[in-house]
Amino acid sequence: MEIIRHGEDEVYEAAWSGCVESLNALIEKDPHILRKLAPVLTTKTETPLHISALLGHLEFTKTLLTHIPKLAEALNSFRSTPLHLASAGGHKEIVQALLFAYPDACLCPDEKGRIPLHYAAMRGEVEVLKELTHANHESIYVRVDNRLKETVLHLCVKYTQLECLKFLVQLVRDNGEFLNSKAGSDASMTILQLALMLGQIQA
After folding, report:
1. Which architecture, in CATH terms, is 1-104?
2. Taking Cα atoms as reference points, which of 129, 127, 126, 178 lies closest to residue 154?
3. With contact defined as beta carbons under 8 Å apart, do 38 and 71 qualify?
């Protein structure tokens, strides 16, 4: 992960290690040190919050959010929010903290057109899916914003995530139209057809 420094290298170093004591010492030394990271919000680079969310540093993440909640809105060079990274990593408690700070991140697509829910499904993170769907049930119906226009159900089948598929199907079982949605390179494959093509009999 490439990081563009903004003169606050020690904050980034603390984020990599997840050392809350170091962060608190830096804040005590310079109470405005985190405010100096404000330009990061508009430069599309990794913030310390992206790093701590990615690496699963819960207390560090909470400390950052206490001081600057708007860091939860920042996009990195891949247009990912910290919630994208925490969701992909299966960091449930960090996901909870980030959703509290910025619930709209549920619907933010990254440069690949995927929202955090898509990454949780692709990685088999059922507990994270529960948090994301509880925060925004409508996120289930958001398709990947690319030429394939896959649903989250297609992603579960494609990445062989049966438990995620079971969980999500239970949530949408009364929506036959969505369950039979078609996607793919020719926009003509349902999840059942995709499962058969991939030999996923259980799916």
Report:
1. Alpha Horseshoe (1.25)
2. 178
3. no
What's the CATH number of domain 112-203, 1.10.760.10, 1.10.10.10, 2.120.10.70, 1.25.40.20? 1.25.40.20
Structure tokens at 154: 């297609």
**Mean pLDDT computed over 32-46:** 70
What pLDDT was estimated at residue 186? 59
For residues 107 and 162, what is the distance between their CA atoms, to the nearest angstrom? Answer: 23
Q: For tokens 């598929």, what's the residue?
A: 165
Most confident of 21-25, 93-97, 199-203: 93-97
pLDDT digits (tens, 9 = 90+) for 73-106: 999 999 999 999 999 999 999 999 999 999 999 9
Residue 114 in tokens:
């995927």
